[in-house]
Amino acid sequence: MSCQEFLESMFEFCRGEGKPEERALSQAHLASCARCRQELAETESCFAMMKSCCGAEKIPEDLKLKFEQLMASCCGSRK
Amino acid sequence: MPLASDISALYERFGSQIYSYLRRLTQNAELAQDLTQETFLRVMESFQSFRGEGEISNWLYRIATNLFRDYLRAHKGKEQDAWDDKDRPDMSEIPAGDPPVTQFLEREAVTQCVRDCIAALPPPYRSALLLYAVEGKTVEESATILGCSKEAVKVRLHRGRHLFKSLAAERCEVSVERRGGVTCLPKESRKEPLS
After folding, report:
1. How many domains does chain B have?
2. Which regions in chain B score pLDDT beneath 50?
């Protein structure tokens, strides 16, 4: 596997997607390529940081209330 | 038409998730609220068309993403041009060896910095990164939600990450320690040295 091929499959590799044989090829490439190991580590680090900084936001209560009212007016008779 | 209780149950289960995604995607609380409501109204209208293929949450994300895309089209801003940019599956331009940003000081400032950098990304990169990195979707799920190929998603993720890093570098002071650890200090919070 070349660096280009590894980079093209890296995001599937991170999520455990892809066939076992493809993952084995990626792992073998990583074992012998410092540059791709670094790219993978940086990518995972960057994405972990994004996730930790973009936590879930609670939906505003008044929005929920509006939606419930809308539901009641749209199809309340079918409830 | 589905029962109101079905839609309410979906709203209860996925409402916050979709709102959070739209909040990050649109960078506008009011717009995110409107699009969240619209997403579930669309669900109500087209519930019968959901064929049960894949997770229902992916269907909701797809509706929400399309609504934002429609919004950009209607407003014909610069961001819309970016949606129409063709993604070439070429990753050879990825620079090598830029330093990882793994450790931060001043957490609150950094959180805001990261959010600002994500907000500054073109919508196709922003949406792909939010789905994959923040919402935890796979490449395949992200492609389904965004209505593009898996290759296009991967190109957006690669380019988005590197653009994010460039934007972060403009805002933060990155220093590499002797043992390889990296510290990122937001430039805004640096104190001027005493004279």
Report:
1. 2
2. 86-102, 104, 176, 179-182, 190-195
Residue B184 β-bridge partners: B104, B174
CATH number for the domain that contains residue B29: 1.10.1740.10
CATH number, position B169: 1.10.10.10
Q: What is the pLDDT along chain A (79 residues), one digit of tens a residue?
A: 899 999 999 999 988 888 899 999 999 999 999 999 999 998 998 898 888 888 778 888 888 888 888 777 776 544 4
B136 with B175, same domain: the answer is: yes
Classify residue B182: in a domain, yes or no. Answer: yes
**Which of A11, A35, A70 is nearest residue B157 as measured by Cβ atoms?**
A11
Q: How far apart are CA B21 and CA A51, in angstroms?
A: 12
Q: What is the ipTM, given to two decimal places?
A: 0.85
Q: Indicate whether B108 and B171 sit together in one domain.
A: yes
Q: Which amino acid belongs to residue B86? A: K
| A44 close to B (CB below 8 A) | no
Binary contact (B8, A68; C-beta < 8 A): yes
Co-location of B75 and B112 in the same domain: no
pTM for the full predicted model: 0.77
- Asked if the Cβ–Cβ distance from A15 to B138 is below 8 Å, we say yes
Give tens-digit pLDDT for B169-188: 887 765 545 544 445 666 65
For residue B164, give every residue at least 6 positions away whose Cβ sits within 8 Å of its Cβ, in sequence order, or none: A46, A50, B117, B118, B121, B125, B129
What's the domain range around B128?
103-189
